[in-house]
Amino acid sequence: MAFITKTLFNNILRRFIHQDFHEAVSSMTITDAFLFLMVHSVDKLGIWQRLPVILGLIYLAVRRHLHQQYNLINVGKTPSGVRFSPGDYPYRTADGSYNDPFNEGAGSQGSFFGRNIMPVHQTDKLMKPDPMVVATKLLTRTQYKDTDKQFNMIAASWIQFMIHDWIDHMENTNQKVELIAPKEVANKCPLSSFKFYPTKEFPTGLYNIKSGAKNIRTPWWDGSVIYGSNKEKLQKVRTFTDGKLKISEDGLLQQDEDGIPISGDIRNRLVTSAVIAKIHTIDWTLELLKTDMLLAGMRANWYGLLGKKFKDTFGHVGGSSLGGLVGLRKPVNHGVPYSFTEEFTSVYRLHQLLPDSIHLRNINVAPGPNKSPPLLEEVPMPDLIGHKGEKILSQIGFTRQFVSMGHQACGALELWNYPSWLRDLVAQDVDGKDRPDHVDLATLEIYRDRERRVARYNQFRRALLLIPISKWEDLTEDKNAIEVLKDVYGDDVEELDLMVGLMAEKKIKGFAISETAFIVFLLMAARRLEADRFFTSDFNEETYTKKGIEWVNTTESLKDVLDRHYPEISKKWINSTSAFSVWDSPPNAPNPTPLYLRFPSS
Protein backbone atom coordinates (compact mmCIF):
# COMPACT_ATOMS: atom_id res chain seq x y z
CA MET A 1 0.00 0.00 0.00
CA ALA A 2 2.81 2.41 0.90
CA PHE A 3 4.52 1.65 -2.42
CA ILE A 4 1.31 2.36 -4.37
CA THR A 5 0.76 5.60 -2.46
CA LYS A 6 4.29 6.76 -3.18
CA THR A 7 4.01 5.84 -6.86
CA LEU A 8 0.78 7.80 -7.22
CA PHE A 9 2.26 10.76 -5.37
CA ASN A 10 5.36 10.75 -7.59
CA ASN A 11 3.27 10.59 -10.74
CA ILE A 12 1.32 13.65 -9.61
CA LEU A 13 4.49 15.41 -8.50
CA ARG A 14 6.20 14.97 -11.87
CA ARG A 15 3.69 17.34 -13.44
CA PHE A 16 5.08 20.21 -11.38
CA ILE A 17 8.83 19.61 -11.43
CA HIS A 18 11.61 19.91 -13.99
CA GLN A 19 12.07 16.64 -15.89
CA ASP A 20 15.74 16.46 -14.87
CA PHE A 21 14.67 15.86 -11.26
CA HIS A 22 12.18 13.02 -11.83
CA GLU A 23 14.71 10.31 -11.04
CA ALA A 24 16.04 12.09 -7.93
CA VAL A 25 12.54 12.63 -6.54
CA SER A 26 11.60 8.99 -7.12
CA SER A 27 14.25 7.97 -4.55
CA MET A 28 13.03 10.45 -1.91
CA THR A 29 10.61 9.80 0.91
CA ILE A 30 7.13 11.30 0.41
CA THR A 31 7.95 13.98 2.99
CA ASP A 32 11.21 14.92 1.31
CA ALA A 33 9.58 14.90 -2.13
CA PHE A 34 6.99 17.38 -0.84
CA LEU A 35 9.76 19.54 0.68
CA PHE A 36 11.59 19.46 -2.63
CA LEU A 37 8.44 20.62 -4.41
CA MET A 38 8.40 23.63 -2.07
CA VAL A 39 11.97 24.73 -2.78
CA HIS A 40 11.69 23.86 -6.47
CA SER A 41 8.60 26.04 -6.84
CA VAL A 42 10.51 28.94 -5.31
CA ASP A 43 13.50 28.22 -7.57
CA LYS A 44 11.36 28.28 -10.71
CA LEU A 45 10.23 31.77 -9.74
CA GLY A 46 13.83 32.78 -8.98
CA ILE A 47 12.83 34.60 -5.80
CA TRP A 48 14.41 32.87 -2.79
CA GLN A 49 17.01 35.62 -2.34
CA ARG A 50 14.23 38.23 -2.36
CA LEU A 51 12.08 36.60 0.31
CA PRO A 52 11.59 38.23 3.72
CA VAL A 53 14.29 37.06 6.13
CA ILE A 54 12.12 34.62 8.08
CA LEU A 55 10.76 32.97 4.91
CA GLY A 56 14.24 32.87 3.43
CA LEU A 57 15.53 31.05 6.51
CA ILE A 58 12.78 28.45 6.13
CA TYR A 59 13.73 27.97 2.46
CA LEU A 60 17.41 27.53 3.35
CA ALA A 61 16.63 25.17 6.24
CA VAL A 62 14.50 22.93 3.99
CA ARG A 63 17.13 22.96 1.25
CA ARG A 64 19.90 22.13 3.71
CA HIS A 65 17.83 19.22 5.05
CA LEU A 66 17.49 17.79 1.54
CA HIS A 67 21.22 18.05 0.91
CA GLN A 68 21.99 16.42 4.25
CA GLN A 69 19.84 13.48 3.17
CA TYR A 70 20.94 13.13 -0.45
CA ASN A 71 24.27 14.93 -0.92
CA LEU A 72 26.52 13.36 1.71
CA ILE A 73 28.27 10.33 0.24
CA ASN A 74 30.84 8.26 2.10
CA VAL A 75 34.07 7.22 0.40
CA GLY A 76 36.01 4.36 1.98
CA LYS A 77 34.90 1.68 4.41
CA THR A 78 33.81 2.75 7.87
CA PRO A 79 35.81 0.86 10.50
CA SER A 80 33.82 -1.09 13.06
CA GLY A 81 35.10 -1.46 16.57
CA VAL A 82 34.62 -0.60 20.20
CA ARG A 83 33.38 2.90 20.92
CA PHE A 84 36.14 4.91 22.61
CA SER A 85 35.48 7.19 25.56
CA PRO A 86 35.72 10.89 24.64
CA GLY A 87 36.88 11.50 28.21
CA ASP A 88 40.14 9.75 27.32
CA TYR A 89 40.79 12.42 24.67
CA PRO A 90 39.61 15.78 26.09
CA TYR A 91 41.72 17.59 23.46
CA ARG A 92 42.22 17.70 19.71
CA THR A 93 44.76 15.08 18.69
CA ALA A 94 47.56 16.11 16.35
CA ASP A 95 46.33 13.95 13.47
CA GLY A 96 42.58 14.61 13.92
CA SER A 97 41.74 11.12 15.18
CA TYR A 98 39.46 10.31 18.14
CA ASN A 99 36.94 13.06 17.46
CA ASP A 100 33.94 10.92 16.41
CA PRO A 101 33.25 8.54 19.35
CA PHE A 102 31.99 5.85 16.96
CA ASN A 103 34.72 6.16 14.34
CA GLU A 104 38.15 7.05 15.67
CA GLY A 105 39.59 7.62 12.17
CA ALA A 106 36.91 9.98 10.87
CA GLY A 107 38.43 13.30 9.87
CA SER A 108 41.98 12.17 10.55
CA GLN A 109 45.02 12.87 8.42
CA GLY A 110 45.06 10.45 5.50
CA SER A 111 41.30 9.82 5.46
CA PHE A 112 39.35 9.89 2.19
CA PHE A 113 37.73 12.93 0.67
CA GLY A 114 33.99 12.39 0.68
CA ARG A 115 31.50 13.33 -2.03
CA ASN A 116 28.44 15.54 -2.36
CA ILE A 117 27.78 14.14 -5.84
CA MET A 118 28.59 10.73 -7.30
CA PRO A 119 31.86 10.85 -9.27
CA VAL A 120 31.58 11.40 -13.02
CA HIS A 121 34.26 9.56 -14.97
CA GLN A 122 35.90 11.85 -17.54
CA THR A 123 38.91 9.83 -18.69
CA ASP A 124 37.92 10.30 -22.31
CA LYS A 125 37.27 14.01 -21.78
CA LEU A 126 40.27 15.07 -19.69
CA MET A 127 41.47 17.26 -22.57
CA LYS A 128 38.10 18.29 -24.05
CA PRO A 129 38.16 21.17 -24.45
CA ASP A 130 41.88 21.66 -23.84
CA PRO A 131 42.42 23.05 -20.30
CA MET A 132 44.95 25.57 -21.60
CA VAL A 133 42.40 26.86 -24.11
CA VAL A 134 39.81 27.22 -21.33
CA ALA A 135 42.27 29.01 -19.02
CA THR A 136 43.53 31.35 -21.75
CA LYS A 137 40.23 32.30 -23.33
CA LEU A 138 37.95 32.42 -20.27
CA LEU A 139 39.95 32.73 -17.06
CA THR A 140 43.15 34.76 -17.57
CA ARG A 141 42.92 38.32 -16.28
CA THR A 142 42.48 40.94 -18.97
CA GLN A 143 41.70 43.83 -16.63
CA TYR A 144 41.65 43.66 -12.84
CA LYS A 145 38.16 43.73 -11.30
CA ASP A 146 37.79 44.07 -7.54
CA THR A 147 34.98 43.67 -5.02
CA ASP A 148 34.75 47.42 -4.30
CA LYS A 149 34.36 47.91 -0.52
CA GLN A 150 32.81 44.52 0.30
CA PHE A 151 35.87 42.28 0.70
CA ASN A 152 39.48 43.18 1.42
CA MET A 153 42.82 41.42 1.06
CA ILE A 154 42.68 40.18 4.67
CA ALA A 155 39.48 38.36 3.73
CA ALA A 156 41.25 36.80 0.74
CA SER A 157 44.22 35.66 2.83
CA TRP A 158 41.86 34.39 5.55
CA ILE A 159 40.13 31.93 3.20
CA GLN A 160 43.48 30.72 1.88
CA PHE A 161 44.46 30.13 5.52
CA MET A 162 41.23 28.15 6.05
CA ILE A 163 41.59 26.04 2.91
CA HIS A 164 45.13 25.08 3.88
CA ASP A 165 43.77 24.12 7.29
CA TRP A 166 41.16 21.79 5.78
CA ILE A 167 42.30 20.21 2.53
CA ASP A 168 45.34 19.04 0.57
CA HIS A 169 45.28 16.07 -1.79
CA MET A 170 47.93 13.37 -1.66
CA GLU A 171 49.87 13.23 -4.94
CA ASN A 172 51.33 10.31 -6.87
CA THR A 173 54.99 11.34 -6.85
CA ASN A 174 55.97 8.27 -8.90
CA GLN A 175 54.31 9.64 -12.02
CA LYS A 176 54.10 12.95 -13.91
CA VAL A 177 51.55 14.42 -16.28
CA GLU A 178 52.55 16.92 -18.95
CA LEU A 179 50.22 19.44 -20.56
CA ILE A 180 51.30 21.15 -23.79
CA ALA A 181 49.85 24.43 -25.03
CA PRO A 182 47.89 23.90 -28.28
CA LYS A 183 48.76 26.08 -31.26
CA GLU A 184 45.63 28.23 -31.07
CA VAL A 185 46.66 29.70 -27.69
CA ALA A 186 50.39 28.88 -27.47
CA ASN A 187 51.49 32.48 -28.00
CA LYS A 188 49.28 33.61 -25.10
CA CYS A 189 50.34 30.95 -22.60
CA PRO A 190 53.19 31.86 -20.20
CA LEU A 191 54.37 28.22 -20.34
CA SER A 192 54.56 26.22 -23.57
CA SER A 193 54.18 23.10 -21.42
CA PHE A 194 54.37 22.06 -17.78
CA LYS A 195 54.57 18.91 -15.69
CA PHE A 196 52.91 18.00 -12.41
CA TYR A 197 52.06 15.04 -10.22
CA PRO A 198 48.61 13.47 -10.63
CA THR A 199 46.32 12.99 -7.65
CA LYS A 200 47.00 9.65 -5.99
CA GLU A 201 44.10 7.21 -6.08
CA PHE A 202 43.45 4.56 -3.42
CA PRO A 203 41.01 1.63 -3.51
CA THR A 204 38.02 2.25 -1.26
CA GLY A 205 36.74 -1.28 -0.89
CA LEU A 206 33.30 -0.05 -2.00
CA TYR A 207 31.28 -1.15 -5.01
CA ASN A 208 29.78 2.16 -6.14
CA ILE A 209 32.91 4.31 -5.65
CA LYS A 210 35.89 2.06 -6.27
CA SER A 211 38.69 4.57 -5.70
CA GLY A 212 39.21 7.94 -4.07
CA ALA A 213 41.75 10.53 -2.99
CA LYS A 214 43.12 11.03 0.50
CA ASN A 215 43.52 14.25 2.49
CA ILE A 216 46.94 14.95 4.02
CA ARG A 217 45.35 17.63 6.21
CA THR A 218 42.87 17.15 9.04
CA PRO A 219 39.47 18.38 7.80
CA TRP A 220 38.31 19.38 11.29
CA TRP A 221 38.40 23.06 12.23
CA ASP A 222 41.53 22.52 14.29
CA GLY A 223 44.09 25.11 13.16
CA SER A 224 46.28 22.43 11.55
CA VAL A 225 47.59 25.02 9.07
CA ILE A 226 49.44 26.45 12.10
CA TYR A 227 49.84 23.48 14.41
CA GLY A 228 50.34 20.74 11.83
CA SER A 229 48.51 17.51 11.15
CA ASN A 230 50.81 15.21 13.10
CA LYS A 231 52.74 15.11 16.37
CA GLU A 232 56.11 15.92 14.75
CA LYS A 233 54.84 19.18 13.22
CA LEU A 234 53.05 20.09 16.44
CA GLN A 235 56.23 19.81 18.49
CA LYS A 236 58.13 22.05 16.07
CA VAL A 237 55.76 25.01 16.34
CA ARG A 238 54.79 25.00 20.05
CA THR A 239 56.72 26.39 23.00
CA PHE A 240 54.65 24.22 25.41
CA THR A 241 54.38 27.28 27.68
CA ASP A 242 51.00 29.01 28.12
CA GLY A 243 49.82 27.56 24.81
CA LYS A 244 52.10 29.87 22.80
CA LEU A 245 53.75 29.37 19.42
CA LYS A 246 57.39 29.89 18.60
CA ILE A 247 57.90 33.25 16.89
CA SER A 248 60.90 35.18 15.63
CA GLU A 249 62.12 38.60 16.73
CA ASP A 250 60.01 40.38 14.09
CA GLY A 251 56.85 38.85 15.57
CA LEU A 252 56.34 36.46 12.65
CA LEU A 253 56.73 32.69 12.44
CA GLN A 254 60.22 31.27 12.84
CA GLN A 255 61.99 29.93 9.75
CA ASP A 256 64.16 26.86 9.35
CA GLU A 257 67.68 26.76 7.89
CA ASP A 258 66.20 26.88 4.36
CA GLY A 259 64.15 30.02 5.10
CA ILE A 260 60.87 28.09 5.22
CA PRO A 261 58.34 29.21 7.87
CA ILE A 262 57.89 26.65 10.63
CA SER A 263 54.18 25.89 10.76
CA GLY A 264 51.80 23.06 10.14
CA ASP A 265 50.57 24.43 6.86
CA ILE A 266 46.77 19.41 22.43
CA ARG A 267 45.09 21.05 24.51
CA ASN A 268 45.64 24.80 24.12
CA ARG A 269 44.80 24.33 20.43
CA LEU A 270 41.09 24.01 21.33
CA VAL A 271 40.40 27.65 22.18
CA THR A 272 42.28 29.09 19.21
CA SER A 273 40.49 26.75 16.81
CA ALA A 274 37.08 27.67 18.26
CA VAL A 275 37.83 31.40 17.96
CA ILE A 276 38.87 30.87 14.32
CA ALA A 277 35.70 28.90 13.61
CA LYS A 278 33.51 31.55 15.22
CA ILE A 279 35.15 34.44 13.36
CA HIS A 280 34.74 32.57 10.09
CA THR A 281 31.08 31.77 10.80
CA ILE A 282 29.73 35.09 12.05
CA ASP A 283 32.22 37.63 10.67
CA TRP A 284 34.06 36.53 7.48
CA THR A 285 31.03 34.79 5.97
CA LEU A 286 28.78 37.79 6.61
CA GLU A 287 31.01 39.93 4.40
CA LEU A 288 31.17 37.22 1.72
CA LEU A 289 27.36 36.92 1.67
CA LYS A 290 26.29 40.41 2.63
CA THR A 291 22.53 40.10 3.10
CA ASP A 292 20.21 40.22 6.11
CA MET A 293 19.08 36.67 5.38
CA LEU A 294 22.61 35.29 5.71
CA LEU A 295 23.32 37.52 8.70
CA ALA A 296 20.40 35.82 10.43
CA GLY A 297 21.31 32.38 9.11
CA MET A 298 24.98 32.37 10.09
CA ARG A 299 24.29 33.75 13.57
CA ALA A 300 21.63 31.06 13.93
CA ASN A 301 24.26 28.44 13.08
CA TRP A 302 26.27 29.57 16.10
CA TYR A 303 23.67 30.92 18.53
CA GLY A 304 20.34 29.54 17.28
CA LEU A 305 17.21 31.50 16.47
CA LEU A 306 16.89 32.49 20.15
CA GLY A 307 20.05 34.56 19.77
CA LYS A 308 23.23 35.35 21.66
CA LYS A 309 21.69 37.06 24.69
CA PHE A 310 19.40 34.13 25.36
CA LYS A 311 22.18 31.56 24.90
CA ASP A 312 24.62 33.51 27.10
CA THR A 313 21.97 33.65 29.84
CA PHE A 314 20.33 30.22 29.69
CA GLY A 315 22.80 28.11 27.74
CA HIS A 316 21.89 25.85 24.82
CA VAL A 317 18.12 25.31 24.77
CA GLY A 318 16.27 23.18 22.24
CA GLY A 319 17.77 21.61 19.14
CA SER A 320 19.95 23.09 16.43
CA SER A 321 17.26 25.53 15.24
CA LEU A 322 16.58 27.23 18.58
CA GLY A 323 19.97 26.78 20.25
CA GLY A 324 22.34 26.59 17.29
CA LEU A 325 24.76 23.91 16.17
CA VAL A 326 27.38 24.87 18.73
CA GLY A 327 26.64 23.20 22.06
CA LEU A 328 24.43 20.39 20.77
CA ARG A 329 24.18 17.42 23.17
CA LYS A 330 26.00 15.17 20.70
CA PRO A 331 27.66 15.49 17.28
CA VAL A 332 25.55 14.84 14.20
CA ASN A 333 26.98 13.35 10.99
CA HIS A 334 23.70 12.30 9.26
CA GLY A 335 24.92 8.71 9.02
CA VAL A 336 28.03 9.61 6.97
CA PRO A 337 31.52 9.81 8.54
CA TYR A 338 32.83 13.38 8.57
CA SER A 339 35.13 14.57 5.80
CA PHE A 340 35.46 17.42 3.39
CA THR A 341 34.40 16.61 -0.14
CA GLU A 342 35.82 16.85 -3.64
CA GLU A 343 32.98 19.20 -4.57
CA PHE A 344 33.76 21.49 -1.63
CA THR A 345 37.36 21.64 -2.84
CA SER A 346 36.18 22.59 -6.33
CA VAL A 347 33.89 25.47 -5.34
CA TYR A 348 36.61 26.92 -3.12
CA ARG A 349 38.98 27.53 -6.02
CA LEU A 350 39.17 31.27 -5.37
CA HIS A 351 42.49 32.49 -6.78
CA GLN A 352 40.66 35.30 -8.60
CA LEU A 353 40.59 37.05 -5.21
CA LEU A 354 44.30 37.82 -5.59
CA PRO A 355 45.33 41.18 -7.13
CA ASP A 356 48.40 41.90 -9.26
CA SER A 357 50.10 43.94 -6.56
CA ILE A 358 49.83 44.87 -2.90
CA HIS A 359 49.33 48.58 -2.24
CA LEU A 360 51.63 49.37 0.66
CA ARG A 361 50.46 52.25 2.85
CA ASN A 362 52.35 54.84 4.86
CA ILE A 363 51.46 54.16 8.50
CA ASN A 364 53.88 56.75 9.89
CA VAL A 365 51.50 59.65 9.23
CA ALA A 366 48.11 60.70 10.55
CA PRO A 367 45.11 58.90 8.98
CA GLY A 368 43.31 60.61 6.11
CA PRO A 369 39.56 60.65 5.42
CA ASN A 370 37.78 57.57 6.84
CA LYS A 371 41.02 56.53 8.56
CA SER A 372 42.74 55.79 5.25
CA PRO A 373 46.57 55.93 5.10
CA PRO A 374 48.26 57.35 1.98
CA LEU A 375 49.64 55.00 -0.67
CA LEU A 376 53.39 54.46 -0.41
CA GLU A 377 54.18 52.01 -3.22
CA GLU A 378 52.82 49.05 -5.15
CA VAL A 379 54.66 45.76 -4.72
CA PRO A 380 54.04 43.14 -7.46
CA MET A 381 52.51 39.94 -6.09
CA PRO A 382 55.19 37.69 -7.66
CA ASP A 383 57.71 39.44 -5.38
CA LEU A 384 55.70 38.42 -2.31
CA ILE A 385 55.43 34.67 -2.82
CA GLY A 386 57.88 31.89 -2.11
CA HIS A 387 61.13 32.29 -0.21
CA LYS A 388 61.83 35.69 -1.76
CA GLY A 389 58.45 36.88 -0.56
CA GLU A 390 59.14 35.73 3.01
CA LYS A 391 62.16 38.04 3.20
CA ILE A 392 60.33 41.03 1.72
CA LEU A 393 57.32 40.59 3.99
CA SER A 394 59.62 40.39 7.00
CA GLN A 395 61.13 43.73 5.96
CA ILE A 396 57.70 45.30 5.48
CA GLY A 397 56.62 44.19 8.96
CA PHE A 398 53.32 42.91 10.26
CA THR A 399 51.60 46.23 11.03
CA ARG A 400 52.24 47.88 7.66
CA GLN A 401 51.35 44.69 5.82
CA PHE A 402 48.10 44.19 7.74
CA VAL A 403 46.94 47.81 7.49
CA SER A 404 47.74 47.84 3.76
CA MET A 405 45.77 44.66 3.15
CA GLY A 406 42.87 46.00 5.19
CA HIS A 407 42.62 49.07 2.96
CA GLN A 408 42.84 47.15 -0.35
CA ALA A 409 39.90 45.43 -2.03
CA CYS A 410 40.48 41.89 -3.26
CA GLY A 411 39.65 40.55 -6.71
CA ALA A 412 36.16 39.63 -7.91
CA LEU A 413 35.18 36.03 -8.69
CA GLU A 414 34.42 36.57 -12.35
CA LEU A 415 35.56 35.50 -15.80
CA TRP A 416 38.82 36.99 -17.09
CA ASN A 417 40.06 37.80 -13.60
CA TYR A 418 42.47 34.91 -12.84
CA PRO A 419 45.92 36.38 -12.03
CA SER A 420 48.28 35.96 -14.99
CA TRP A 421 51.25 35.60 -12.66
CA LEU A 422 49.77 32.37 -11.29
CA ARG A 423 50.09 30.81 -14.75
CA ASP A 424 53.87 30.66 -14.33
CA LEU A 425 54.24 29.64 -10.71
CA VAL A 426 57.05 27.96 -8.82
CA ALA A 427 55.20 25.21 -7.01
CA GLN A 428 56.29 23.91 -3.62
CA ASP A 429 56.15 20.46 -2.08
CA VAL A 430 54.50 19.56 1.22
CA ASP A 431 57.64 20.65 3.09
CA GLY A 432 57.62 24.11 1.50
CA LYS A 433 60.58 23.48 -0.80
CA ASP A 434 60.55 24.69 -4.41
CA ARG A 435 59.80 22.13 -7.07
CA PRO A 436 61.83 22.16 -10.31
CA ASP A 437 58.79 22.47 -12.61
CA HIS A 438 56.81 25.68 -12.96
CA VAL A 439 53.05 25.21 -13.24
CA ASP A 440 50.17 27.00 -14.92
CA LEU A 441 47.76 27.07 -11.98
CA ALA A 442 44.69 28.22 -13.93
CA THR A 443 45.06 25.33 -16.37
CA LEU A 444 45.87 22.89 -13.58
CA GLU A 445 42.67 23.77 -11.69
CA ILE A 446 40.53 22.97 -14.73
CA TYR A 447 42.38 19.68 -15.15
CA ARG A 448 42.11 18.76 -11.45
CA ASP A 449 38.30 18.89 -11.41
CA ARG A 450 38.15 16.59 -14.43
CA GLU A 451 40.84 14.27 -13.06
CA ARG A 452 39.04 13.98 -9.70
CA ARG A 453 35.78 13.15 -11.47
CA VAL A 454 33.91 16.24 -10.30
CA ALA A 455 30.77 16.81 -12.35
CA ARG A 456 30.76 19.59 -14.91
CA TYR A 457 28.67 22.67 -14.23
CA ASN A 458 25.22 21.61 -15.45
CA GLN A 459 25.35 18.12 -13.99
CA PHE A 460 26.72 19.63 -10.78
CA ARG A 461 23.64 21.87 -10.51
CA ARG A 462 21.24 19.01 -11.22
CA ALA A 463 22.79 16.87 -8.51
CA LEU A 464 22.35 19.77 -6.07
CA LEU A 465 18.67 20.05 -7.06
CA LEU A 466 19.28 23.36 -8.81
CA ILE A 467 17.64 24.07 -12.16
CA PRO A 468 20.24 23.53 -14.94
CA ILE A 469 20.86 25.93 -17.80
CA SER A 470 19.62 25.08 -21.28
CA LYS A 471 21.44 27.85 -23.17
CA TRP A 472 24.34 30.22 -22.49
CA GLU A 473 21.95 33.11 -21.94
CA ASP A 474 20.64 31.31 -18.84
CA LEU A 475 24.11 31.59 -17.35
CA THR A 476 25.06 35.20 -18.11
CA GLU A 477 23.78 38.33 -19.81
CA ASP A 478 27.31 39.30 -20.90
CA LYS A 479 27.26 39.07 -24.72
CA ASN A 480 31.05 38.92 -24.95
CA ALA A 481 31.13 36.06 -22.45
CA ILE A 482 28.44 34.18 -24.41
CA GLU A 483 30.45 34.58 -27.62
CA VAL A 484 33.63 33.18 -26.05
CA LEU A 485 31.75 30.36 -24.30
CA LYS A 486 30.38 29.31 -27.68
CA ASP A 487 33.87 29.53 -29.18
CA VAL A 488 35.30 27.20 -26.50
CA TYR A 489 32.38 24.82 -25.84
CA GLY A 490 30.22 25.20 -28.93
CA ASP A 491 26.49 25.00 -28.22
CA ASP A 492 26.86 22.12 -25.75
CA VAL A 493 26.23 23.63 -22.30
CA GLU A 494 26.79 20.17 -20.77
CA GLU A 495 30.52 20.45 -21.49
CA LEU A 496 30.93 23.64 -19.43
CA ASP A 497 33.61 23.22 -16.77
CA LEU A 498 32.47 23.81 -13.21
CA MET A 499 34.98 26.55 -12.41
CA VAL A 500 34.10 28.52 -15.56
CA GLY A 501 30.40 28.26 -14.79
CA LEU A 502 30.92 29.49 -11.21
CA MET A 503 32.78 32.55 -12.48
CA ALA A 504 30.32 33.30 -15.29
CA GLU A 505 27.14 32.84 -13.24
CA LYS A 506 25.06 35.92 -12.45
CA LYS A 507 25.66 36.77 -8.80
CA ILE A 508 22.95 37.30 -6.21
CA LYS A 509 23.00 40.86 -4.88
CA GLY A 510 25.39 40.98 -1.92
CA PHE A 511 27.02 37.62 -2.75
CA ALA A 512 30.71 37.52 -3.68
CA ILE A 513 30.31 33.86 -4.76
CA SER A 514 27.85 32.18 -7.10
CA GLU A 515 24.57 30.59 -6.04
CA THR A 516 25.89 27.17 -7.09
CA ALA A 517 28.96 27.48 -4.85
CA PHE A 518 26.76 28.80 -2.04
CA ILE A 519 24.61 25.65 -1.99
CA VAL A 520 27.69 23.51 -1.28
CA PHE A 521 28.66 26.04 1.38
CA LEU A 522 25.15 25.86 2.89
CA LEU A 523 25.58 22.14 3.48
CA MET A 524 29.24 22.00 4.52
CA ALA A 525 29.29 25.13 6.72
CA ALA A 526 26.85 23.45 9.07
CA ARG A 527 28.52 20.04 8.82
CA ARG A 528 31.95 21.20 10.00
CA LEU A 529 30.34 22.47 13.22
CA GLU A 530 27.66 19.86 13.96
CA ALA A 531 29.87 16.80 13.29
CA ASP A 532 32.67 17.94 15.62
CA ARG A 533 32.33 16.98 19.29
CA PHE A 534 34.50 19.93 20.31
CA PHE A 535 31.77 22.24 18.98
CA THR A 536 28.89 20.11 20.30
CA SER A 537 28.98 17.70 23.25
CA ASP A 538 32.42 18.82 24.45
CA PHE A 539 31.90 22.56 23.99
CA ASN A 540 31.92 23.20 27.73
CA GLU A 541 34.03 24.49 30.61
CA GLU A 542 35.21 21.01 31.54
CA THR A 543 36.92 20.59 28.17
CA TYR A 544 37.85 24.19 27.34
CA THR A 545 38.25 25.50 30.93
CA LYS A 546 36.16 28.39 32.22
CA LYS A 547 38.62 30.97 30.89
CA GLY A 548 38.74 29.26 27.50
CA ILE A 549 34.97 29.23 27.06
CA GLU A 550 34.82 32.87 28.15
CA TRP A 551 37.49 33.72 25.58
CA VAL A 552 35.45 32.12 22.79
CA ASN A 553 32.13 33.57 23.93
CA THR A 554 33.43 37.13 24.14
CA THR A 555 35.01 37.06 20.67
CA GLU A 556 32.57 38.08 17.95
CA SER A 557 34.88 39.20 15.16
CA LEU A 558 38.44 39.57 13.90
CA LYS A 559 38.19 43.17 15.08
CA ASP A 560 37.81 41.88 18.66
CA VAL A 561 41.08 39.96 18.26
CA LEU A 562 42.81 43.08 16.94
CA ASP A 563 41.42 45.12 19.85
CA ARG A 564 43.03 42.65 22.26
CA HIS A 565 46.43 42.28 20.62
CA TYR A 566 46.88 45.35 18.37
CA PRO A 567 44.50 48.01 19.78
CA GLU A 568 46.37 50.79 18.01
CA ILE A 569 45.58 49.27 14.59
CA SER A 570 41.87 49.05 15.22
CA LYS A 571 41.58 52.50 16.79
CA LYS A 572 43.70 54.36 14.26
CA TRP A 573 43.09 52.66 10.92
CA ILE A 574 39.70 50.85 10.85
CA ASN A 575 36.56 52.80 9.96
CA SER A 576 34.46 49.82 8.78
CA THR A 577 32.32 47.56 10.98
CA SER A 578 34.17 44.39 9.95
CA ALA A 579 37.91 43.92 9.57
CA PHE A 580 37.13 41.88 6.43
CA SER A 581 35.56 44.75 4.47
CA VAL A 582 37.72 47.58 3.12
CA TRP A 583 38.72 49.58 6.18
CA ASP A 584 37.84 53.05 4.90
CA SER A 585 34.25 52.02 4.14
CA PRO A 586 31.52 53.47 6.38
CA PRO A 587 30.29 51.42 9.35
CA ASN A 588 27.06 49.48 8.91
CA ALA A 589 24.11 51.80 9.45
CA PRO A 590 21.85 50.88 12.40
CA ASN A 591 18.60 49.20 11.41
CA PRO A 592 15.73 49.47 13.94
CA THR A 593 13.72 46.70 12.24
CA PRO A 594 14.13 43.32 14.04
CA LEU A 595 16.37 41.07 11.95
CA TYR A 596 13.82 38.31 11.33
CA LEU A 597 11.20 40.85 10.15
CA ARG A 598 13.37 42.52 7.54
CA PHE A 599 12.80 42.51 3.80
CA PRO A 600 15.70 42.55 1.31
CA SER A 601 16.53 45.94 -0.16
CA SER A 602 15.68 46.35 -3.84
From TrEMBL:
<dbReference type="InterPro" id="IPR037120">
    <property type="entry name" value="Haem_peroxidase_sf_animal"/>
</dbReference>
<dbReference type="GO" id="GO:0006631">
    <property type="term" value="P:fatty acid metabolic process"/>
</dbReference>
<keyword id="KW-0560">Oxidoreductase</keyword>
<keyword id="KW-0479">Metal-binding</keyword>
<dbReference type="GO" id="GO:0046872">
    <property type="term" value="F:metal ion binding"/>
</dbReference>
<dbReference type="GO" id="GO:0020037">
    <property type="term" value="F:heme binding"/>
</dbReference>
<dbReference type="GO" id="GO:0006952">
    <property type="term" value="P:defense response"/>
</dbReference>
<keyword id="KW-0408">Iron</keyword>
<dbReference type="GO" id="GO:0004601">
    <property type="term" value="F:peroxidase activity"/>
</dbReference>
<keyword id="KW-0611">Plant defense</keyword>
<dbReference type="Pfam" id="PF03098">
    <property type="entry name" value="An_peroxidase"/>
</dbReference>
<dbReference type="InterPro" id="IPR010255">
    <property type="entry name" value="Haem_peroxidase_sf"/>
</dbReference>
<keyword id="KW-0223">Dioxygenase</keyword>
<dbReference type="InterPro" id="IPR050783">
    <property type="entry name" value="Oxylipin_biosynth_metab"/>
</dbReference>
<protein>
    <recommendedName>
        <fullName>Alpha-dioxygenase 1</fullName>
    </recommendedName>
</protein>
<dbReference type="GO" id="GO:0006979">
    <property type="term" value="P:response to oxidative stress"/>
</dbReference>
<dbReference type="InterPro" id="IPR019791">
    <property type="entry name" value="Haem_peroxidase_animal"/>
</dbReference>
<dbReference type="GO" id="GO:0016702">
    <property type="term" value="F:oxidoreductase activity, acting on single donors with incorporation of molecular oxygen, incorporation of two atoms of oxygen"/>
</dbReference>
